Amino acid sequence: MAASASCISLVVLVALATAASGQLSPTFYDTSCPRALATIKSGVMAAVSSDPRMGASLLRLHFHDCFVQGCDASVLLSGMEQNAIPNAGSLRGFGVIDSIKTQIEAICNQTVSCADILTVAARDSVIALGGPSWTVPLGRRDSIDANEAEANSELPGFNSSRSELEAAFLRKGGLNTVDMVAPSGAHTIGQAQCSTFRARIYGGGTNISAAYAASLRANCPRQWAPRGLLHSDQVLFNNDTTDNTVRNFASNPAAFSSAFTTAMIKMGNIAPKTGTQGQIRLSCSRVHRASNDFHMKRIMQRNYPIPMHALVKVISEV
């Protein structure tokens, strides 16, 4: 009997360990919140239909989240990372994510993380703008903090050199130079603020065509065929090691789409919090203060159907 109980306990503990360690899976919410993905897609489609620029904004918001302590929705917390130099006054889309979160909470309370909502929203934004689709692994959890200092040090700036861009991507582990070039193509679907490229159009340099600079000056008064809008775009095609990759993408849309989706999946997998790490926020803009015991209870109930009192009884009999 003792041996039998020990075997049962071992099975239970293995199951709990699997739930605690956590693995991302496209089917993560199939049972716990089957309407989650449709709700996210509907919210994104409505937002992009109302404001086409929102697609690029949500994609950028996802990138700025993942590059700072992983894809954990830390950028959505009020203050902190939002005040970092690369983010302040330029990030958009918070209201869209908040609205989607509210809708999902109404059908699946404290089940779908803000980190997953943002990751899926980035994918759906690209689809809404006519771009490629990809499968999003799910199961991320939300951070309980944010890091303004890391945002200032880890996010590439619009004036970054190619070597600085490459270093930023390689530091993330699993990303390479192709993953660096492909997402830069997303700059073609958004808008940049004049302050991020005035130096290029008024500097008299040779790293931008005169005609293109003149057309941009018409919309950006002086305050501050190369046609890279941002300096960080143009350095990828400037007689350097990434030139061939840029040429290949320009002449082969299928190759670009494949590389872009691969890069987005890899970026979405940067240091996710899973299992018992972090939490599932009730509101994306602030940390939920419930106890860790409450979250652990929900995880075990969701991933292992034996009632809690039965689990306690089996483990206590070892």
UniProtKB/TrEMBL annotation:
One of its GO terms (cellular component) is extracellular region. Coiled coil: none annotated. Its EC number is 1.11.1.7. Heme b binds at H187. The active site is at H64. Ca(2+) 1 binds at D65, V68, G70, D72, S74, E81. Ca(2+) 2 binds at T188. Its main location: secreted. GO terms for biological process: hydrogen peroxide catabolic process; response to oxidative stress. Its cofactor is Ca(2+); heme b. The record marks R60 as: Transition state stabilizer. It catalyses: 2 a phenolic donor + H2O2 = 2 a phenolic radical donor + 2 H2O. PROSITE patterns: PEROXIDASE_2, PEROXIDASE_4. Keywords: Calcium, Disulfide bond, Glycoprotein, Heme, Hydrogen peroxide, Iron, Metal-binding, Oxidoreductase, Peroxidase, Pyrrolidone carboxylic acid, Secreted, Signal. It comes from the Eukaryota. Substrate binds at P156. Belongs to the peroxidase family. Classical plant (class III) peroxidase subfamily. This is Peroxidase.
